[in-house]
Predict the structure.
Amino acid sequence: MSVKTIFQRSDISAPALINPTDTTEKIKGFPKICVSTFSDNIIRKYASLKHVEQIAELYTANGSMPVYKIRYKDTDIAFFQSRVGAPACVVSFEEVVAMGAERFVLFGSCGVLDDEKVKGKIIIPVSAVRDEGTSYHYAAPSPEIEADEKCVNVLENVLKDLGCPYVKGKTWTTDGIYRETLPMLQERKEQGCLAVEMECASMLAVSQYRKIPFIQFLYGADNLGDDTWEIRDLMQYGMNGAEKYMALAFECGLALM
């Protein structure tokens, strides 16, 4: 008997056996806005600020991940560190939504595929190539997934208001960071991808499935646009622009309300 994989199934409407609300309790007073990034350095920096408090924890076999609350412009905002990689990132999203989050903003670094267009700019993903697996559990198979136009417009307007240079374009979401071959990189560049990362397609899929307004923005780290890899400030993990990125994320969260 031929068994279909998730990549071949167009019907994803069947109910799940385990749901986020089965493992995660709703928290009274949990902020409606939640912000997340992958950088441990950035999260530690903001968690150490006065008047920031821990309000929850996310648990995995890797250990617990604190969820914090900060007051920003008279609004409570939750924030936490997302784990790298689509499956872990999506699980954390599912669980903070079960806790009570209603708007979600995610940001992180990416590999640059078109340095000329991207250099010195925030990247607004308008679509993502689905070269990972998690998104196929939340959206029917397709080569790409589109970002919600309203959320893209919110991010663009915030960037304009703050005077931040930006570029809109396609990103490539992959599961195999060490299998980004030169032929594949060239193919994705020819498709119009500006960047490569590991979560965007899956996060677009889960947020649309759960009907949660979602914004993601990227900033360039290493350069994969030439034949030789340039590490650049990849190992800084966002600290060079920590205040700018978090402030931008907080502003996006407020703009989603």
